[in-house]
Specification:
alpha/beta; Rossmann fold; 4-stranded parallel sheet; two-stranded antiparallel ribbon; globular; glutamine amidotransferase; transferase
């Protein structure tokens, strides 16, 4: 069975964790959620971004997701793929040394790594993306 690791933190965009993780599980993948700020069995809370009358999205509290593995003790090299969802969580994840270690491993080993939205910041923090084509929010171009 293929194993997929998802790195998350509080304020992850709900639609970028809920649908992908449930779809992967339905397709028969083993999916683990890890977070640098929560231990196995802990929970993070997502955000749901709703359009508002103003010219920005109004973040509201979303759902709780259980952390299934401890980021400090997992054998991340045993995973077949890494997924980095977006929302505001990458603003916290991209400064965590353990997160950078894991992401850098996936980049350098050429294993499948999927990144969306703000999580391009986490890729940039590895300093291992030179020469690679990335997509992300417009302001992340300056960082990457």
């Amino acid at each position: 069975m293929k194993k997929i690791l998802i790195l998350i933190a509080d304020c992850v965009e709900d639609s970028q964790i809920d649908f992908p993780s449930k779809t992967l599980l339905t397709l028969g993948y083993k999916v683990d959620l890890a977070s640098p700020n929560k231990k196995e069995g802990g929970f993070i809370t997502s955000q749901i971004f709703e359009p508002s009358e103003l010219q920005y999205f109004n973040p509201g509290m979303g759902h709780k997701y259980e952390i299934t593995v401890d980021i400090n003790t997992i054998d991340y090299k045993s995973y077949d793929a890494l997924y980095l969802p977006g929302g505001h969580a990458p603003l916290y994840l991209h400064v965590n040394p353990k997160v950078i270690e894991i992401v850098k491993y996936f980049l350098e080993s050429k294993k499948l790594l999927v990144s969306i939205c703000y999580s391009v910041l986490t890729l940039a923090a590895t300093k291992s993306i030179s020469g690679k084509k990335l997509t992300g929010l417009p302001f992340t171009k300056v960082v990457a």
